[in-house]
């Protein structure tokens, strides 16, 4: 009985050491896929103190028009994969003229897009 319990414990540990790294790799891959911005970059503007970069993107859905308009802030310091954050998303892109967007930094922590003032973390 004791030998049977030991082999069962060894099999469980081996299975755990194989399964956990695979699940970790799959989780990181899915997180990266779901959080990576897609679409065409319309404009890129650096903050006044040059520590952050704001990118405005839009998804071109072909004959269906345009997808959501997003503003992504990238902090130049920090980890390479964890330094981006979407701070604005607008799904009503039919009424937006994407060739003449009002998009600028007010100060180092505030950005203005389409007459919306957004505090940047």
Quick synopsis:
The chain has 121 residues and is an alpha+beta fold. It has one helix spanning 2-35; strands spanning 40-46, 52-60, 66-75, 84-90, 103-107, 110-113, 116-119.
Give an overview in words.
There is one protein chain. This protein has 1 helix and 7 strands. The chain is α+β, with helices and mostly antiparallel strands. Strands 1-2-3-4 form a 4-stranded antiparallel sheet, with no helix packed on it. The chain has a 3-stranded antiparallel sheet with strand order 5-6-7, with no helix packed on it. The longest helix is centred in the first third of the chain and has 34 residues, at 2-35. The mean pLDDT is 79.
Average pLDDT, all residues: 79
Distance between the termini: 59 Å
Q: What is the number of strand segments? A: 7
The largest pleated sheet is described as: 4 strands, antiparallel
**Computed structural class:** alpha+beta
State the helicity in percent bands: 25-40%
Q: Which band does the percent of strand residues land in? A: 35-45%
Helix count, per DSSP? 1
Give the overall form.
elongated
Rg (CA only): 22 Å
The string of secondary-structure elements, in order, is HEEEEEEE
Strand order of the largest sheet: 1-2-3-4
* Low-pLDDT ranges: none
């Amino acid at each position: 009985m004791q030998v049977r319990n030991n082999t069962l414990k060894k099999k469980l540990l081996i299975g755990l050491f194989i399964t956990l790294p695979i699940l970790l790799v799959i989780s990181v891959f899915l997180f990266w896929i779901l959080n990576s911005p897609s679409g065409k970059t319309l404009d890129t503007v650096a903050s006044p103190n040059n520590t952050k970069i704001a990118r405005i993107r839009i998804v071109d859905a072909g004959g269906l028009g345009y997808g959501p308009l997003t503003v992504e802030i990238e902090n130049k310091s920090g980890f390479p994969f964890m330094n981006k954050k979407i701070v604005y998303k607008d799904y009503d892109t039919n009424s937006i003229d994407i060739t003449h967007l009002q998009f600028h930094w007010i100060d180092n922590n505030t950005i203005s897009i389409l007459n919306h003032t957004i505090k940047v973390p």
